[in-house]
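Quick entry, no commentary yet.
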Amino acid sequence: MITATTDIQYLKGVGEKRAVILKNKGIDTIGALLRFYPRAYLDWTNITPISECTFYENFCIKARIVTQIETLKKRAGMTIYKFIAEDSSAQMEVTLFNQKFLAEKLRTDREYLFYGKLDGNFYMRQMSSPIIMESGFNGIEPIYPASKTMSSKTIEKLVLNALAAVKLPETLPLEILERNGLCDLNTALQNIHFPKTEELLEKAKKRLVFEELFILQAGLTFLKKRSRGKTGCVIKENCFANFQKLLPFEMTSAQKRVTEECIADMKSGRPMNRLVQGDVGSGKTAVCAALCYVAAKNGFQSALMAPTEILAEQHFKTLIGFTENSGVKCGLLTGSTTKKQKAIIKEALKTGEIDIIVGTHALISDDVEFNNLGLVITDEQHRFGVAQRGKLSSKGENPHTLVMSATPIPRTLGLIIYGDLDISIIDEYPKGRQRIDTYFVDTSYRQRIYKYIKKFLDSGRQGYIVCPLVEENETLDITPAVEYYEALQQNEFRDYRLGLLHGKMSAKDKEKVMRQFSEGEINLLIATTVIEVGIDVPNAVIMVIENAERFGLSQLHQLRGRIGRGEYKSDCILISDSKSGETVKRLNVIKNTSDGFKIADADLELRGPGDFLGSRQHGLPDMKIADLFADRDTLHRAGKEVEWLLKTDPKLMESPNAALREEIKELYRKLNSN
């Protein structure tokens, strides 16, 4: 019997070869295919006269072909077909490229539907490569994410087969459906794939958006409840005051408040599960050091896992500086640690001789054992999946967990995105933090900018030039980092020591370049966004960001945070030739604001969560249909319904909630695979 969980290979029309293609898209069951929603729709029912169509927007036009179809052979491999079509309002010239099969099917003096964008001029409108249908077609056509190996039409046929073969069990209680005016699941699936009207499509979207946000919040609520049901390592002695005496500076009131919030968790008897958010340069490391110190003085070990060796080394040096002469012993374990040193460190961890271990993913190796692990800290949550964090935590008896993130999340979304964590925010900068002046200019200033950079380099300072990441299939007028580096090395900066850092370099080569930059061997670093995470070089005071319109505001803010970390005043220069009003508005936000949370709010509002959240970045599963910002009212409503349901059926054990329980299990699986 075919069900939603049946392997996609056994659906009519699939077979072994197509199953491989579908599984590469994440569609491994028939149910998953039904949840593979169209990315867009062609509404063939909404016909616009040619004369009323504006240029460069998609329209559906019903027109008659009034000339013979002309064939033009431009060059080998390129054949162009042209003809004139008209309706009662105007004519348009239609051009097809290498579409022999379609051109041969078309007939002069017959009416067709054309879907595409018009350009041209007042005398003759033109449409290139439109989608063409018989004029009698009347409906809304789904468009699926296609590839060279599988077209949208093929997916459409397979979805039709799936809808005929399977009915999915309802995931939401009837009371919730009625209270919120939602249709049942199978009606929604039929109408999200093959809507007969715009109204039915909207009803389907409303239902599926609500369901997705409901399941997300229910799953995160269970995660939080699960961690709170455990017994954690209890801190009995609060040594925070003693730690503060070790510091060469006064902690800010925000640092003290957040540290006390964490210590209260650690004394509570349940495992801490907390996110500490702090803008770049707000002093998160000092908070972590305080907690590691308190844990050590209570007989517990701490592990701090960083995403790169450079960051791990930075944290290690900082922790040693803070805990020197305190009797607390620190260790460092990374991929570069020698075999002999690794053996010594692992033995010291096992015996409890090391109180605080700092490292990379090397910490989660099976042969790393702890004597009494009580605190796990991960730096920059979006660099580690839930599974990796869990693996490190499993090396102790329900240790306390702290996640540090310098990526500000808009306050409206923080509780949703980190629904399984308590949140603390360091909303104050330490004294002495240098202001960064930000400028926004076009490319005509480039030579002046180069001279300005040289002034800093000549005085012994260092700087960055950041280039956007360019995908191979992009045809934009942007110079990739490698070419940019070579041009500068041979011309404007030939008398300076330049370095290159980009994502395709090996981890070893990246570490080498960053070490050279940290130690002052490189004056100017040409880089892509691989520098956005936690690099701390106090001597770097100038940053130029090329094609700044290509970056999100939060990303620009993270990049800018790499400078202004020492005693010197710093400058950030954004270069963009974009004349788009939205781009100018966005870049002016960065120019005029240094508050990461305000920037995150603006970023979310201007770009939407599809760009801002990149849910992978924050450990969330991809949203299939919901939009965390645009659908925030639904998000709130769904959250209230989750509260109601979990009061009536706390563990979702009642039979009507079985399908919902399975969806939440699937959510856990996705969270652990991110």
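second:
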Amino acid sequence: ARDPGSLARWLCGALVVRGVVAVLALPRSRRELLQLDFLAAALQIPFLSLLDTRGPLPFRAQQSPFHFHMERQSSLDTLVDVLVSVLQANDWQETNLVLCHPWDVSGFLSLWARRSQLFLRTILDLGYLEEPGATSYLQQHGESFRALSSPVLVLGCDLRRARLIFQAAEESGLLPQEFHWMLGSPLSAGELQTEGLPLGLLAYGEVSRPPLELFIQDAVELVSRAIGSAARVRPDLALLQTMVNCNDRRRAGGESSGLFLSRFMANTSFHGRTGTVRVENATLVRSEQQFRVWSLRRDSRGEPTWVTVGTWHHGHLELEEGAWQSQRPRARPSQGPRMKLRVVTLVEHPFVFTREADEDGSCPAGQLCLDPGTNDSAALDALFEELGAENGSVPREYKKCCYGYCIDLLEKLAEDMPFDFQLYIVGDGKYGAWKNGRWTGLVGDLLSGTAHMAVTSFSINSARSKVIDFTSPFFSTSLGILVRTKDTASPIGAFMWPLHWTMWVGIFVALHMTALFLTLYEWKSPYGMTPHGRNRMKIFSYSSALNLCYAILFGRTVSSKTPKCCTGRFLMNLWAIFCLLVLSSYTANLAAVMVGDKTFEELSGIHDPKLHHPSQGFRFGTVWESSAEEYIKKSFPEMHEYMRRYNVPTTPAGVTMLKTEPPKLNAFIMDKSLLDYEVSIDSDCKLLTVGKPFAIEGYGIGLPQNSPLTSNLSEFISRYKSAGFIDLLHDKWYKMVPCGKRVFAVTE
């Protein structure tokens, strides 16, 4: 093997003297990478190396302006940026650290100290211990687990060692699910496993990494672009090598061609095959990288699965819709002889009604609930503390009496489980949707820890199920369409509606013309009923002809004179046939018009063309941030875009707009269970649901993810269904008003 000086002189003769202006190198180890740094400085031409490395480079950046290193694997800087973004997204200012050393973490920690203000507190350091030694170490330091506080960053540990840590924590009396754990070492999507890992665990890793061939193509393009840019400025320096003697590298005046080209390479960026390629810190070439952040959740079947909760791209963490807020710490229900829970609800008839409390603040029927118009946890704590105090003073306008289907169910659950509860109405009056980077309504209160439970007509859908838990459904329903029958009052001229005015004019013109010709035929005939006829005692005049024609038209038997001549009698029969046809058509049209005047807006269902291609003036809407709006937004985006302007804050508001004169809505889409109730209490019986049901769903009780109450509540709800208690609730709140039967008849 040659010494470094001999190797440099040999390469100088083989490359530089022959006019090579740049070198693309593919080292196989960090040792060879260090050798390339020496050769680049010795030969004074740009070297572009490409190697998978993790940890600090074996040479100092900016030490040699000639050695450019292209990173294919994520650098420590990038990993620190990703982790800091995740911790900041959760508002974690202090994080516990559990260390392993499969790869050198010292550089990582020093870089963290320089780039982040977040505090890391090392609790355990497993060092380089193998599995038996690590297990023994964890058993000896069990007290360290009891000092843990959420969150915990497991840094440098693979999944095998991480399982040992979670197992040791559980053996120390801690439930891993009660903490926020995050794996600090990046994983690939194929390495993600679920066995032995706690729910809520966060992991991250690079995705969509291009193959080596694309990195090589971008490296070549970087050099070619730099040469092209340099040639436009100084072609003599860019294209001709200034070093002609390897033993004498000195050049009289000016910079070398290698340094000249290096300056252009350091300022070159472009969009290549691997994404955006740029040079940082003068010599580090980086391409675009994308990371995914995953969380271990339960799927719809209850099995643990990894769910994407965020994407790190272009230096920023983009959160998946709704999947992130559940990572924040939340208040726990107080334990004791009877649990004390805070329950949030939303007024929706017949599931939840409200009325004013008595003067002394009590509720003879139903449950006392607060309507403070806020979801601030501290404000609610203060209000309920005042409410429980002997001399507490809560503003009277905040006190309401809540009752209804869901309140009866809540009282039954509180009696059987048992638990005590504090009830309040959601501050913004919404079910909950992902808006402006956060969840609103009931979902937001559960995620923030303001409430332990949400009880109302709370639809179970996929978006909400990603961030909160639901019990088994206690009420099954679907979405429906509510319309209003048209007004039945008809004006005095309604009898003329079946025929167009031109038809009416034509009939009466024909009548008078027929009477005229009957008179003329009778008077011209030698057999007619005229003074010139055969001694007739009566005279057939024009008035006689009019009397006859009107009698035939209206089908009335009156005393009239009939023509005696054959022509007149033939014309009279033609007129009679014409009148029969007109009368039959009029009768049929009159029935259709009068029935049509009492009909409703005919819609076959959600796929009706009137909804997908609404005509001018046809208006329909739903409730803001409800499951109905979420379904339409996801399934029919164009329809949702049209109806957004007509959406309303609550179901009663939509019904009111449907019943106004003139109506502000032609159709209202919402949960059919709510629409059925509105139909049943309509005193005018003008409302009805139409079309086929769609989007079958259920109502469940909402709880924070991994709540210990979920399984117990679901079990009790199943018992209530079997025992008939749920049916009793339905009969109590639905079968009580006059228009109820019509709802189901029309829908069927």
